[in-house]
Design brief:
The protein is α/β, with parallel strands linked by helices. Helices cover about 30% and strands about 20% of the residues. The strands form 3 sheets. A 7-stranded mixed beta sheet has the order 8-14-9-10-11-12-13. A 6-stranded mixed beta sheet has the order 3-2-1-7-16-15. The protein has a 3-stranded antiparallel beta sheet with strand order 4-5-6. α1 packs parallel to α3 and α4 packs across α10. The radius of gyration is 23 Å and the shape is globular.
Length: about 475
């Protein structure tokens, strides 16, 4: 076994979180680092969100607010104009001038920003999954890929995405013998390539979940010419809110004085919105989003759990807003009585031939039975499955390097972003992206992920010896 040169940073996961971190680590030429990104996709920067091939899956904020570069917030918008990447998409530009391109276009932008780093051999893309991560007695990390290759690294960053949605417990038995290729159709992850291709235009569809993923699913089905009834359900029946019809600027103060109870946070938000009826509520929620980490840090674990249990559904529908194009598609489906959105939950499901018989309990207590041909889960990531979602995470947990955060939103991390178990943090193991949201509260939106990537890059560079490394050495 040969010894790798120092200053090797291994990032596991090459979606936006990992790509943004790599870019911020390497954007300053005076900082000599070699960065490895382990990502099975052929292109870095796309991940689940920005690898969507459906042109109806659009970014849900204007392009002017999307950038890999915190110092240059209009970078994506300018790249669109420079490259003409948006010229073939007539539906991207809205009447107010804002651009909402397809998500895959943003993935192409991130890849373009990383290309010079790959060409200069400062960044190396390892197109494989990591199956095991172990710490050697030397303090170096030993990473094993699915293909059996082994790499050494001085620092490891976990930048993988959240696990796929989890089937409701009523579907557990069905999931053992049904898939998207059988009839009736049971789809647990509509984000997979061609994940909805097995749904026929005349299939009666039940969608579990009514947020952004539901809206994207409806948009995809509409593009496939779907004409049969679609019922979308969630416990509260809330759908994602829209952007303000007029331009807004984040405003308000939700930090002075600090709020130590979830109830106080909610009352403060409600009061400032009620006291300023002339200002769109989006302006105040945008400020809550900006101040989210500080608000979150003022709450103890009991209050954080209370916020997650009672307020998270309302926050999600107001915070994660729908693009105007997708909203139009959903509204048309509602007006045509193709789509219904109800506050209900599944209490029983049975397979009857090539259909499902589903018993629903509505929020008013009424129950009824529905017969459907396809069920699609869009409930969002199954956070509780993080430690079991990938083999290398299992190995890290088994060896005591990682644990769940007390809020069950992600991994336990320190204020600096190090993986933490109990009071002990590992200075050579970091967590990037949404998996760190249990510590910081708001780490799902792209601006927050970018800002955190910059902070993490500064931390890693500060503790890394400044010696010029060679390319990583494959050791087996």
């Amino acid at each position: 076994m040969s010894t790798q040169p120092p200053n090797i940073i291994a990032i596991i996961g090459g979606g936006f979180s990992g790509a943004a971190l790599a870019w911020h680590l390497l954007k300053e030429p005076r900082v000599p680092l070699t960065v490895l990104v382990f990502e099975p996709r052929s292109v870095l920067g796309s991940g689940v969100a920005y690898s969507a091939t459906d042109p109806n899956h659009r970014i849900n904020v204007p392009a002017s607010r999307m950038s890999i570069n915190t110092a240059h917030p209009l970078d994506f918008l300018e790249w669109l104009e420079e490259t003409g990447a948006n010229h073939q998409d007539d539906g991207a530009r809205q009447p107010d001038g804002h651009l909402y391109p397809a998500r895959k276009v943003f993935g192409q932008y991130v890849a373009a920003r990383l290309a010079p780093l790959l060409e200069a051999h400062l960044l190396r893309h390892i197109p494989s999954l990591v199956t095991a991560a172990q710490k050697a007695s030397t303090g170096k990390w030993i990473l094993t890929t699915q293909g059996g290759d082994v790499f050494e690294a001085d620092t490891v960053v976990i930048a993988t995405s959240h696990p796929a949605p989890q089937l409701p417990r009523q579907f557990a038995a069905l999931g053992t013998f049904l898939s998207a290729e059988t009839r009736p159709v049971l789809i647990n992850d509509p984000w997979k390539p061609d994940g909805l291709s097995s749904v026929k235009p005349d299939d009666r569809v039940l969608i579990i979940g009514t947020g952004l993923s539901m809206a994207d699913t409806v948009a995809s089905l509409a593009a496939q010419g779907h004409r049969a009834p679609i019922l979308a359900i969630s416990r509260r029946g809330q759908r994602s809110k829209s952007h303000s019809r007029t331009p807004v600027t984040a405003t308000g103060d939700f930090l002075s004085p600090p709020a130590f109870r979830t109830r106080d946070v909610l009352q403060r938000i409600r009061k400032i919105i009620a006291d300023n009826p002339e200002t769109p509520w989006q302006a105040f929620l945008d400020r809550v989003r900006e101040q989210g980490p500080q608000i979150w840090s003022s709450l103890d674990q009991t209050e954080r759990r209370r916020l997650i249990r009672h307020l998270r559904p309302f926050w999600d529908t107001h915070r994660f807003r729908i693009s105007p194009q997708t909203e139009n598609i959903v509204n048309k489906a509602l007006q045509a009585d193709i789509l219904q959105i109800k506050a209900a939950r599944v209490i029983k499901v049975e397979k009857e031939g090539k259909t499902f018989k589903v018993t629903l309990r509505h929020r008013n207590g009424h129950t009824d039975d529905r017969v459907v041909d396809a069920i699609i889960t869009t409930t969002g990531p199954a956070h509780v499955n993080i430690l079991h979602s990938q083999p290398f995470l299992k190995s890290l947990a088994a060896e005591g390097h990682i644990e769940m955060d007390h809020s069950d939103l992600g991994l336990h991390v320190s204020a600096e972003g190090n993986a933490q178990v109990g009071p002990k943090k590992d200075p050579s193991l970091f967590v990037a992206g949404p998996l760190a949201r249990g510590r910081f509260g708001e780490l799902m939106g792209l601006p927050e992920v970018t800002l955190y990537a910059e902070k993490l890059a500064n931390t890693i560079r500060a503790q890394t010896a400044m010696t010029v490394p060679e390319n990583a050495t494959l050791i087996s």
